[in-house]
Amino acid sequence: MSASPDRFAGHSAADWQARDSRHYLHPFTDHSDLTQQGARIIERADGVYIYDVDGNQILDGMAGLWCVNAGYGRQDLVDAATKQLQQLPYYNSFFQTAHPPAIALAEKIAELAPEGFERVFFAGSGSEANDTNIKLVRRYWDLVGKPHKQHIISRKNAYHGSTVAAATLGGMGAMHEQLGPMVNFVHHIEQPYHFGLGQGQDAEAFGIAQARLLEEKILELGADQVAAFIGEPVQGAGGVVIPPSSYWGEIQRICKQYDILLIADEVITGFGRLGEWFGSQHLDIAPDLITFAKGVTSGYLPLGGSIVGQRIGEVISSEGGEFAHGYTYSGHPAACAVALANLDALGDEGIIDRVREDTAPYFAERIGSLGDHPLVGEARTIGLMGAVELVADKGSLERFHKDLNVGSRCRNFCFENGLVMRAVGDSMIIAPPLVITRAQVDELVEKAARCLDLTAAWVASAS
Ligand code: PXG
């Protein structure tokens, strides 16, 4: 084989931007903006830093898209993929076949998951995993003779993915508008967002009240019609909504009382983000299904899936014949091999332990200090997830007018100053790779503070 020239080297940012805007339809992107402004072309990465095609170093405060838990540039993950691609690049698990990487990964995930989770169904993404969950739940209720239990309750601003069913499960208004007539079995209740919805109320009482909205919805629909409740332990894309500590206990009481299955969507909170393998362990949640993706491979290759608890797992695997569901890439061998290497790294190198014992408390203290900034109404964290709420008036906590797009401005200042911080409206979101050090947390917070100053100056000049 002759060595091929590096087809990606030697092109300018302007060249990539022109080719990009001609041919590449991006996810969640306004293409007229893209054509005008040009995409930011990211070329390489190492540790917690990404580098654009002009060589600028940017601290990745979002771990890619909440996924690069073990950090960039890990040769062991690359080696695991290479070795598996050489040995068996693809085979499926349909029709009574299997291969070692998928079997070993299912076993490993069962070992790490909370007690009672013994089985794993693989998908290619979090969206596909949540589609799988809908079918698992349906199948379960059919097999136990309660086929009318079909409705699923979710929450506003939840993010459960982008396929038609997963977007329907999610509670993103802008996505629903483009879906048109919605799949009609999903219902959304308000979220436990204390800063946004519970100002002036005792947080724990607010948590109970928001959980009771589930009970109200179940009673409205009829418990015999409701299959499941789905929730992210901590809502991520919806703005790092950390529920009051009363919330999940009450949700679980309600699920139990009305015999409703509980799905914990751990696509973001799984694999160490909260300092435990799963967010359910950190928040004391006992779900029936756990959705995972992202951090399982630290994003090096695409992989997702559902971890199936005993109640559903025993029925699905012992009754009713074939479960008519699966994806070509369910349990892709290279993705599974990378996941195994990644989980070894997260565990054996003490990365998750360090989050729990050291970096998360430090992150809480340092991000918390941004709460003193005149533009900030609240700065909150859990594990290595954080949100900084931008407000027009620090005294009354009044928000900015939506059309000012203050959050997007702040995000742009961040990018220009070497930091990725995402904007959800006017909530600035942070979720760095789990390997971030204290010194890098300092760097992140210093850059964020500078960008808050720049944003405040821009607001003053705009008003
Ligand atoms: N569940 C949760 C909780 C997620 O955060 C998905 C499911 C879907 O996963 P896939 O692999 O199908 O994308 C996600 C994905 C953002 C953002 O802007 C968040 C996600 C994806 C894209 C953007 O915060 N989360």
Jot down its keywords:
seven-stranded mixed sheet; 15 strands; 16% strand; four-stranded mixed sheet; 43% helix; Aspartate Aminotransferase, domain 1; alpha/beta; Aspartate Aminotransferase, domain 2
Notes on the structure:
This protein is of the alpha/beta class and 463 residues long. It folds into two domains: 13-73 and 350-462, Aspartate Aminotransferase, domain 1 (Alpha-Beta Complex); 76-348, Aspartate Aminotransferase, domain 2, CATH 3.40.640.10. The chain contains 17 helices and 15 strands. The chain has helices at residues 13-23, 31-37, 63-66, 75-87, 100-112, 126-143, 164-169, 173-179, 194-197, 203-221, 247-258, 279-283, 310-318, 333-348, 351-369, 406-416, 438-462, and strands at 42-46, 49-52, 57-60, 117-123, 151-155, 186-189, 226-231, 261-265, 289-292, 304-309, 376-382, 385-390, 419-420, 422-424, 427-430. The strands form three sheets. The chain has a seven-stranded mixed β-sheet with strand order 4-10-9-8-7-5-6, with helices on both faces. The protein has a four-stranded mixed β-sheet with strand order 1-2-3-13. Strand 2 (49-52) and strand 3 (57-60) form a beta hairpin. Helix 4 (75-87) packs antiparallel against helix 14 and helix 5 (100-112) runs parallel beside helix 14. The longest helix is centred in the last third of the chain and has 25 residues, at 438-462. The protein starts with 12 loop residues before the first helix and ends with a helix. The mean pLDDT is 96.
